Amino acid sequence: MDALLNDIATVVGQGNVLTGADVVTRRVDWLSGEPCRAGAIVRPADTDELASVMRLCHAARQPVVAHGGLTGLVHGATTAPHELAISLERLSAIEALDPIGGTLTVQAGVPLQRVQEAAEAEGLQFPLDLGARGSCTIGGNIATNAGGVRVIRYGMMRQQVLGLEAVLADGTVVSSLNRMLKNNAGYDLKQLFIGSEGTLGIVTRAVLKLQPRLPSEQTALVACPDFEALTALLRHLGHRLGGALGTFEVMWDNHYRLLTEESGRHAPPLALGAPFYVLVESLGLDPERNAVQFTEALEAALADRLISDAVVAQSATQRDALWAIREDIEGLLQTLAPLFTFDISLPIAEMATYVAELESALARDWPEGRLVVFGHLGDGNLHVSVSVGSAEREVRCAVEHLVYAPLTPLGGSVSAEHGIGLEKRDYLSLSRSPEEIALMRTLKRALDPHHLLNPHKVLPPAPEDTP
Amino acid sequence: MDALLNDIATVVGQGNVLTGADVVTRRVDWLSGEPCRAGAIVRPADTDELASVMRLCHAARQPVVAHGGLTGLVHGATTAPHELAISLERLSAIEALDPIGGTLTVQAGVPLQRVQEAAEAEGLQFPLDLGARGSCTIGGNIATNAGGVRVIRYGMMRQQVLGLEAVLADGTVVSSLNRMLKNNAGYDLKQLFIGSEGTLGIVTRAVLKLQPRLPSEQTALVACPDFEALTALLRHLGHRLGGALGTFEVMWDNHYRLLTEESGRHAPPLALGAPFYVLVESLGLDPERNAVQFTEALEAALADRLISDAVVAQSATQRDALWAIREDIEGLLQTLAPLFTFDISLPIAEMATYVAELESALARDWPEGRLVVFGHLGDGNLHVSVSVGSAEREVRCAVEHLVYAPLTPLGGSVSAEHGIGLEKRDYLSLSRSPEEIALMRTLKRALDPHHLLNPHKVLPPAPEDTP
């Protein structure tokens, strides 16, 4: 690897080939704090330098792992000592903002929050939003097809990308920096790179679609008497708020109770005892009209017994206090450690049964175990946390089996928004058929025949890959 | 081919292998009326039959062309005598509607309008809409990534598809009938089949995402004093109407004048003389609130001189009369025949210059020529019609050159929503780089190494394809 690193240093400069302590002091997983074990970290300045680096790596058959903000949750950026990490941190420029077309052209290493701020400075918004906004990068958001708390209104990252540029395994630069909403000139190549976790190419630049700002946010926490009422409420608000429904975040009672009464971390804004609590937001232009529409929709839901109780935030402070319960991941980790967390999706209609059966199965195998459920219900996405008093590998496998196996007959997914990485690779076949996995392998072989890009991630090893 | 057709008849039944007069009486192009010249038309009943047919075709190296509603505009369904047409017309069932998840599972041969009606019957909407709604099919909408008049609000067909099933060239069935908004379990394979015009697989079923209905439509026709005001108006309405802006359809004065005063086909709702006329719609829940918001937004635009005149439809009849001008394609064809029509996209900021320069270039080469421009401005999509008194092939080529060549430096596209088919195949390289086209070929080779699926469409012949 030394000769190759020397060649790479002539491209990026010696100071941009990190080794030794400069490597291991980086964490590749914020949850576990796992250090980076890459053979070296290479920091190209731009697309051309990255292309040159990849040509060298291709000639040397050197595998690489692209690093963005390293906030992923599925070990998608884990890098082995025989692999190189390619950090996109120096590709950090916001290149162009087109206020007429409503587009922003950025380099891959720009953090999400800087993109949000650049859009806001122009009176627009970039609607993708998630807790890691300050650290995660646009390149990583694209590579993982990030989701977050606005998917019900604006879709996932895939919907926010008009064009992109990527470097292929052999160093070819594929530049598809389309700026139009419509472009049907041949295959939509950017789709290959969105959500494929750096296994088909390394994203270097992107054209993002901006949206008109909706300055008025109405926020409420409501309690639902049963699951039927919960799904009826989702539909009711969809109809009554039209395109304004921006958030529908559900907390099962086990989640709400833990983070309020039980842990004492948050004062409960609504009395305990309901099976479901929902954080609801309506996004609008005119605060007054938006408030009237929102209140009327909630009043109608109360009258129809879709909700049993509600509190509407009257200030930004109150709004933050409601969100703080939903977003208190630290509280979950602290009170339930050791904890296994899952990110799954399934048809909404199947959720109640799924959770009830999971609860029974866990209680059977771990009578002292705890189950906590919350999620983006409108997106079909649940975050399931399980604590059984152990973090052992075999225990984790047993719990994974209980969580994932029932998804297959329901047409659910072992990954809603976090991706597959290494962590869920061996469960991919629970959500995707042999024909689908074979087609994924066909794509991987076609674009990266020498397995140089983020090797071993996403796809389980094929029989022909085993020496 | 006869032996193969006999084998196919044992799969689909003799009555579903059409030959002779049953073939040539079908039109594969509604604009030209070109008859079908396929060796035969095969009509499988379901996915399994199609898979069997494709296995037979694969073994015999028999090329096929999938046929949907045959309303395409780029000769994407043209079928040669040595090719088989595969008609999806018998895959015409609406299989399931999930009102809780807001999804509709349909077979590929279902016409768009039936999908819209099925959604409306449930109090929901399927937002994709275009003039051919009664004939075009969901499979064709997916294969061409259809656009239409609601893209500015809801996106193209790609955004409406949650899952799909396709049959590959070798008869493999890839079933990805995902029903969730979020599913990051491995590569998003459906993206391969959306917009690839039947060259990578044949779509057989799809899960479509439905939206809450927005029953109130406010419609106005406005006149704009110049292009700067036009783009400022687009942005102004985006901000003032928030997510409610549903349509922003621009007619250049040459289009408006032709279809009103000059042809006498429509009474002009606004006086002639402005350079641009825009059909604007706001979609809302509450007719009263929507109307107030819409009127206020237009009044502000008048005060700011973004518009010089406006008429708001006061009834469905008035609304239809406004749309009738914009949608009068027959009027264009009749008054300007022989006519060449184009569907292009380019960054909005570049449009005025592009059209002015095209006008000069045409006037230089054909002083009697006519140029008519309208389009989905908010999407970056213009429909350009050119009449130079001839329909000759060489004349068409010369005009194509004038229309397409200036798009390359602007980052524009030779196809916004119609696709490439045969018609634009030789112009693909004006909109896509050699690296992009090479990657498209890599995909085609990986999925259809024997060139059996809609051969010769989309991609120009590669050197290695020439015998």
From TrEMBL, chains A, B:
Belongs to the FAD-binding oxidoreductase/transferase type 4 family. The lineage of its organism: Bacteria, Pseudomonadati, Pseudomonadota, Gammaproteobacteria, Oceanospirillales. Keywords: FAD, Flavoprotein, Oxidoreductase. This is FAD/FMN-containing dehydrogenase. GO terms for biological process: respiratory electron transport chain. GO terms for molecular function: FAD binding; oxidoreductase activity. It comes from the Bacteria. Its cofactor is FAD. SUPFAM superfamilies: FAD-binding/transporter-associated domain-like, FAD-linked oxidases, C-terminal domain. PROSITE patterns: FAD_PCMH (PS51387). Pfam families: FAD-oxidase_C, FAD_binding_4.
